[in-house]
Amino acid sequence: MTVTVAALYRFAPLPDCAELRAPLADLCVELGLMGTLLLAPEGINGTVAGSAKAIAALLDRLRGGWIFGERLEGLSVRLSQTDAMPFGRLKVKVKREIVAFDGGATDPTQRVGTYVAPADWNEVIRDPETLVIDTRNGFEVAMGSFEGATDPATTSFGDFRAFVDGALDPARHRRIAMFCTGGIRCEKASAFLLDRGFPEVLHLKGGILAYLAEVPREESLWRGGCFVFDDRIALGHGLVPVPVAQEAA
């Protein structure tokens, strides 16, 4: 049986997130889904897996005015398939942030950087005037990244703030392009950089997963595997699970 995996997120005002947790968990149980979903006052984030029909039903509910109203209409979703369930259980949690960064001080619902479509990403990162930054943590970068990208050497996403303040300068770094796994970290990172006065901030729309799904291998500037937070460990081009040693070679 083929399992469909949905990586999803949306920054949206959810002040009632605590009340939303139980009905969302009940729906996931009803649909037979496994994985993790996080709710916070700033939105929803997570990865869940199940049958294609069950995933479609969940997405219809999230986007269709169910308990969230119209707040999740712009939900970002990246689908992939695998031969076995990559999660052992279901977790639906309420958190302070859907991606921990600075306690909610940075608000990506107000403004974020400029999105770059996967098809246009190669041109952007080949520009010698562009500083390309991998916003993920060190162990993720070690598994794979884009050619020539700067590794901030972080152990948690919150460390990215210190990297920016210590290594970057708006006067010198006039054009910055960032990427992450699915796009969510770049939403916050780009908002943070704009708040710090950086004039041009770009980020890969849909993240590495979108790039691997849409850009042909023969045109790709990606090297290695893309770490994912489930039992598949790493994905390659076409979002196919790959042996880590093979992709890192």
TrEMBL record:
<dbReference type="GO" id="GO:0016705">
    <property type="term" value="F:oxidoreductase activity, acting on paired donors, with incorporation or reduction of molecular oxygen"/>
</dbReference>
<dbReference type="GO" id="GO:0006400">
    <property type="term" value="P:tRNA modification"/>
</dbReference>
<protein>
    <recommendedName>
        <fullName>tRNA uridine(34) hydroxylase</fullName>
        <ecNumber>1.14.-.-</ecNumber>
    </recommendedName>
</protein>
<keyword id="KW-0560">Oxidoreductase</keyword>
<comment type="function">
    <text>Catalyzes oxygen-dependent 5-hydroxyuridine (ho5U) modification at position 34 in tRNAs.</text>
</comment>
<dbReference type="Pfam" id="PF00581">
    <property type="entry name" value="Rhodanese"/>
</dbReference>
<dbReference type="InterPro" id="IPR036873">
    <property type="entry name" value="Rhodanese-like_dom_sf"/>
</dbReference>
<keyword id="KW-0819">tRNA processing</keyword>
<dbReference type="InterPro" id="IPR001763">
    <property type="entry name" value="Rhodanese-like_dom"/>
</dbReference>
<dbReference type="InterPro" id="IPR020936">
    <property type="entry name" value="TrhO"/>
</dbReference>
<dbReference type="Pfam" id="PF17773">
    <property type="entry name" value="UPF0176_N"/>
</dbReference>
<dbReference type="InterPro" id="IPR040503">
    <property type="entry name" value="TRHO_N"/>
</dbReference>
<feature type="domain" description="Rhodanese">
    <location>
        <begin position="126"/>
        <end position="220"/>
    </location>
</feature>
<comment type="similarity">
    <text>Belongs to the TrhO family.</text>
</comment>
